[in-house]
Amino acid sequence: MKILFVTSELAGLVKVGGLADVSAALPRALEQVTGDEVRVLLPGYPGVLAGLREAAPVADLPGLAEIPPARLLGARGPDGHDLLVIDCPGLYDRPGTPYTDLAGRDWADNDIRFARLALAAAQLAHGLPGLDWQPDVMHVHDWPAALAPGYVAWNDGRQPVPTVTTIHNLAHQGLFPAGRLGALGVPEAGFAMEGAEFHGQLGFLKAGLWYASEVTTVSPSYADEITTPELGCGLHGLLGGLRDTGRLTGIVNGADDSWHPRDDPYLVRRFDLATRDEKQRNARAVRQRLGLAQRPAPLFSLIARMVWQKGVDLVIDACETLVRAGGQLVVMGTGDAALERRMHTLSHRHPGSVAVRIGYDEPVAHNLFAASDFFLMPSRFEPCGLTQMYAQRFGALPIAHRTGGLRDTIDDGVTGFLFPDSSVRSLLGAVRRALLTFNHRPGMGRMQREAMQREFGWDAPAREYHRVYARVHSRALAAGRTSACHE
């Protein structure tokens, strides 16, 4: 099948979070494992345009209401994959992230910017003059692309294209004032509870859920959790209905093979299951680089956005106990300024035992996984998570809250340690279990071997997504035949 993959991030060109990694790895796996032909559609941010190969205009994208027209470029990404890129400098040629300016403020015209992405997807789905390619299924990711199924549905009676919407994080929904309907070309009929309306606002993600043929999310446990009032972010009723009709599926993400200690170019010393003792050389190098004392202490690491969701405050509150027990802690991340300041205070209070790196550095991150004995992931909720998979591959046993994809990818007491609730007491209970294991070397070695042997590749997820595509495509074909018979 031909799949149009619609995303706002793509690793190798533009990355804010795990969405970029999925957007790069899943299309490759689909083509290699299932034979599907996948083209990735994304906005032409400066970094994207600079990284393209063989870029050339392939079609014109008409505007709608206040959404400007644009050019569509056909190109190849750094890895040679086929891309479709929206060339619209007025919307995308600016500094900052895809979503915010350099000061971290949301762009005031984000509704227009991502409506342009969604509208381009719908226009591609219905066929563009001059472009000899039309998808069988459209797969959109998170709120920036999620208005696309709405535009497909509001198509003046043309045959709908089957669509799949994937939720990577339900907490981010893309909500805009109802007064923006006209500017975005959203019909009044679409602004209803059975449509894009969410508590009086226009919800991009709500449209993506309501109008999609099927909805997926990034782990089976998170698929269950988002049907509850606690984690459903006000959409639990809609999501529960999708589940009850068999149109909500949880598929665990894979982990890209670039995160593997046997051939990682960033490591001081590469290793595999048979040579995992080489972790100690990496640990010595990390301690020297980050100013930690050179001692045979259990090394804990945390690589995360410093925000409430990630439970960073729990680690801060648990740090004193962890250090008194002889542990060392390395933290890398950026986010909430207050959490960053508290982390810096800890590093000054415990020189040689706590190191903090504000920001993100890819080589350092790889070396942290290679050096660490334990990897902290106390997220209050976690749709899937990738770092706990990377950690297990590197023999860094994750210590994680029993939620979402963490519950689905960590085997408690076998490949890591799970704790039951988001509290310091619960986290410290898991830390104490980890320290006991560290001091029992046969048990520690056994758990590291189990963790490093776990398979977290993309082949199995690709097959599951292909089954979803095949299902929605078959239903669309059947609906088309039924409509033809009625005519």
TrEMBL record:
Domain Starch synthase catalytic, first and last residues per copy = 2-239
Enzyme Commission identifier(s): 2.4.1.21
InterPro entries attached here?
Glyco_trans_1, GS/SS, Starch_synth_cat_dom
Q: Which residues bind ADP-alpha-D-glucose?
A: 15
Which chemical reaction does it catalyze?
[(1->4)-alpha-D-glucosyl](n) + ADP-alpha-D-glucose = [(1->4)-alpha-D-glucosyl](n+1) + ADP + H(+)
The highest taxon in the source lineage is Bacteria
In Swiss-Prot or TrEMBL terms, this protein is called Glycogen synthase
Source organism per UniProt? Derxia gummosa DSM 723
User: Could you read off the lineage of the organism from its UniProt record?
Assistant: Bacteria, Pseudomonadati, Pseudomonadota, Betaproteobacteria, Burkholderiales
